[in-house]
Amino acid sequence: MPDKPHDYCGIFGAFNHPDAAILTYYGLHALQHRGQESAGIVTSIFDEQHNRPSMPMHKDFGLVLNVFDDKNIFTKKLKGSAAIGHNRYSTSGSSENPSNIQPFRVHYRGGNLALGHNGNLTNARSLRERFTQEGVLFQSTSDTELILHLISHSKKSNQIDQIVDAVSQITGAYCLVILTDDKLIAVRDPNGFRPLALGQKDGAWFVASETCAFDINDIDYIRDIEPGEILIIDRKTVDTGEMTSIKIPAQKNTSSSGCIFEFVYFSRPDSRVFGENVDKVRRRIGRQLAHEHRLSSFLKHTNDRQPIIISVPDSSNTAAIGYANESQKLGEDCRFEIGLIRNHYVGRTFISPGQESRDLKVRTKFNTVRGVLENRPVIIVDDSIVRGTTSRHLVKMIRKANPSEVHFLASSPPIIEPCYYGMDFPSPEELIANVYDRDINKIAESLGVDSLHYLSPRGLVDAVKRANPSTMEYCTACFTGDYPVPVTSGVDKEENELV
Ligand code: SF4
What we know:
Elements: E1 6-7, E2 9-15, H1 20-30, E3 38-47, E4 52-54, E5 57-61, H2 64-67, H3 72-77, E6 82-88, E7 104-108, E8 111-121, H4 124-133, H5 144-153, H6 159-167, E9 172-180, E10 184-188, E11 197-201, E12 204-208, H7 212-215, E13 220-224, E14 229-233, H8 235-240, E15 244-247, E16 258-259, H9 261-266, E17 272-273, E18 276-277, H10 278-292, H11 295-298, E19 308-311, H12 317-329, E20 335-336, E21 340-342, H13 356-365, E22 366-368, H14 370-373, E23 377-382, H15 389-399, E24 405-410, E25 423-424, H16 432-435, H17 440-447, E26 451-454, H18 457-467, E27 474-475, H19 477-480
Parallel strand pairs: 16-27, 19-20, 19-23, 23-24, 24-26
Antiparallel strand pairs: 1-25, 2-6, 2-12, 3-4, 3-5, 3-6, 7-8, 8-9, 9-10, 10-14, 11-12, 11-13, 14-15, 17-18, 21-22
Bound molecules: iron/sulfur cluster (SF4).
């Protein structure tokens, strides 16, 4: 398992564009960081030959560029002016099952329907037990399939009512893109755990997990899909600009709780999520870190060389810049430097078994700029420490460049609990904060640094709220154990697998 949390998916939808599938392809390409195991696109078209609506689909394991490496996929197969796409990250077991690759496409009494899902349902187990009792046969091990069964089993006659009925019965984190024969439907759960944005270009409408998927297509961002909103885009939207917006019938906990980790690490810094630019929020988090952990409070000053702040590229670049700038404003003598270089072309390298392999894995991804680090106090700013494996090997690598002292700052609090809302963490006993009973000195010793400092949970929320003055509230459960939606029926990745 990689040593960073992973989200399960990125989603994209297009309506009323002659190149819907191609724009979806580029959107998925921009969202590749949200899932690298598989990718898929479904389009909607009227099949003249058979005189019926049709939904061509292409999906496979691999990166977007590999899955769609033949232009005939677009010119001959994925025709139509509406499309949805999905990037998936999955756990190792389920990643072997091709049935789990999204979008899912079905034909039922309401017509054709395709669905892409980003998130994790917290009542997946009880729903699956209910359907199993009813004799339903499952084709995948994904909780996303449950949503399709809820739609097809709904007693409502109208397709939109069936979808409303279905999402009223699911809990947890879900952003959905749904394609029907004549509509694109976007749904965001009442807590708004994951981001979902609405965009427009040349009379066509789009939805995407992050706005970087709009930028690559020159699509204008219009607004976020609201927590608890079902947004229906159809012919009327194209003709008049009007959209039907339905509120998901009230569920017990309806206050928002956007995943704060989207700002810490997961979303791209050039994206706008939860109504604010990620770069701006991440810099603010770095500034907060500078106030909580002044350089002068922990530096040993074993020589008179100017301390340098380095990031672990790319995810902590902006937080590190925020930390360095604010530290300077606070009168600390320091500067930001590029001390680590990341190789962006790593892909899946073959690593031989054995202790040396972890070192090698880090070395294939990063290298130090020795001249920058040598004989200087070095302050590493990273977004998070999960198991600590990568951090430990990075520190080892940096030590070889002979810095005078090495300190580690995390722009998030210690991760102590699992995520039940669509982010994949190692099990709690593997988390470094738990391994060392949350003893910061012991964790620092294990990482091989002179000192270690985390941002406080309160400081993280304050920084995010100051940077994003919207009314959004945030989930911090992996740092605090304070889960905004109760987990009632088992949703960890093993339990989501059918046995
Ligand atoms: S538990 Fe952590 S990763 Fe999961 S939604 Fe909450 S803040 Fe995000």
